[in-house]
Design brief:
Layout: H1 2-18, H2 26-40
């Protein structure tokens, strides 16, 4: 019985956390990737 309660609590917590969306700073990420590509001689093409 104790295991069933733990599993139910875990599943409810996971459902709540999975439904939250977080904003990703894509502009900063693109800049960082571009700099790293330039540093390592890789051509970065943004589409």
């Amino acid at each position: 019985m104790c295991n069933a309660n733990l599993m139910r609590n875990f599943i409810e917590l996971g459902h709540k956390k999975n439904s939250e969306f977080v904003q990703i700073p894509t502009a900063r990420l693109k800049e960082r990737i571009a700099l790293l590509c330039e540093e390592y001689g890789i051509i970065f093409i943004e589409t």
